[in-house]
Amino acid sequence: MESNSPGIGPGSGRRYLALHKPYGVLCQFRDEGGRPTLKSLVPIPDVYPVGRLDRDSEGLLLLTDDGPLAHRLTDPRYAHPRTYLAQVERIPDATALDRLRSGVVLSDGPTRPAEAELLDHEPELTDRVPPIRFRKAVPTAWLELVLREGRNRQVRRMTAAVGHPTLRLVRIAIGPVTLGSLEPGQWRWLEPDELAELSAIRDRPSRENRPGRPHS
User: Fold this and answer.
1) Whole-structure pTM value
2) Tens of pLDDT along 125-172?
3) Is residue 216 part of a domain?
4) Catalytic status, residue 193
5) CA distance 150 to 172
6) 167 exposure class (CB count in 10 Å sphere: 0-12, 13-18, 19+)
7) Contact by Cβ (8 Å): 7, 197
8) Is residue 17 part of a domain?
9) What is the domain range of residue 27?
């Protein structure tokens, strides 16, 4: 493939793609237990996930063979945003939203402040297979959350901590890359504008080595 094709970094030959990971698929290419993995969805060799999505979560996953970019995007020091839609039990009130926005104390310490908005309508998403388990007496609501760190099962732990367990979780953006119209199981090469923004993130001087900043 030509180096100037979508999804190929200019002059580098590196590959970058976005996948809509379905529910129930492991965020890896092999599983000794025979469970569904990325191998059945992504035919491109030698690319690896940037970060992860849990088996019971859905949505945007970046895959690449660009190690420096993967490191930069997953290093919590750089606080790159990740945007999620979370369907939760019951309707969060202002107090619950404020707690999410100011940071929630979890078993491994307080989280960074998050952006949290209660949506006034259900987002347009493909139905999950299998569907979530509703309780007739318990209403649900959708939140849009933007996090700048990636702890294990962080969104689920945060919403549970404020009294609203997550029933369904879909990641819709990682930095400048969005899920868009990808259906579960579909993937696409990244577009040139997305590659340009990701290249700028990768090549930005690290905070420790920026001019004028003392070394610790």
Assistant:
1) 0.88
2) 999 999 998 888 899 999 999 999 988 999 999 999 999 999 999 999
3) no
4) no
5) 15
6) buried
7) no
8) yes
9) 1-78+181-205
